[in-house]
Specification:
By secondary structure, the chain is α+β, with helices and mostly antiparallel strands. 21% of the residues lie in helices and 41% in strands. The chain has an eight-stranded antiparallel β-barrel. A two-stranded antiparallel sheet has the order 2-3. The longest helix is centred in the first third of the chain and has 21 residues. The termini are far apart.
């Protein structure tokens, strides 16, 4: 007596686990990353620092400021009036709620003119960007330079009157 061997039942049996594995991926892709839980909450501004080295020509001299120089407290930048522009922001408080809304208590005219004081937020570009969407639906994305459970550094491009455009880092501490 001759036995016949059929491949079809074996192929169906071997491909069945692949079907279940692929279904699990779809459910997991909708979950928010761990960074969302870190961002959620209330943050206090601790500083705004230069994101890159900056040179300012004045009176026939050039003044060099390294990356990381505070635009709020540095006495030499204050000679150019920079600290006076940024010091009103030093008590800003940022709240990012778990429902995707944000509020900023304080002055945003210079550092976040597009975002304003209220709107919605989410993480974008593989969770590397904190995207603020203003109350009038204008996107205001900011690269996350550093994040931990108690600190957050966001990049900003700010037009400093009389000096030009500067890349800055907004430094926040979780409350």
């Amino acid at each position: 007596m001759k036995k016949t061997f059929s491949v079809l039942p074996w192929m169906a049996f071997l491909t069945l686990p692949l079907f279940f594995i692929s279904c699990k991926k779809d459910k997991a892709s909708n979950a928010k990353s761990e960074k969302y839980q870190i961002v959620e909450g209330t943050w206090k501004q601790t500083d705004i620092v230069l994101g890159v080295p900056v040179s300012i020509p004045a009176g026939g001299n050039t003044y060099d400021f390294p990356a990381g120089t505070s635009v709020i407290t540095d006495p030499y930048l204050n000679a150019f009036g920079v600290s006076d522009l940024f010091s009103p922001t030093q008590d800003n408080v940022y709240t990012f709620s778990d429902n995707g809304a944000y509020t900023i208590q304080g002055v945003t005219d210079l550092i976040l003119p597009v975002a304003g004081n209220t709107g919605t937020w989410n993480l974008d570009v593989y969770d590397a960007v904190l995207k603020l969407v203003s109350a009038n639906s204008t996107n205001d994305p900011h690269w996350i330079n550093g994040i931990s459970s108690d600190s957050l550094s966001l990049s900003m491009i700010v037009e400093i009157p009389g000096l030009g455009t500067a890349p800055l880092n907004l430094i926040l501490r979780k409350q």
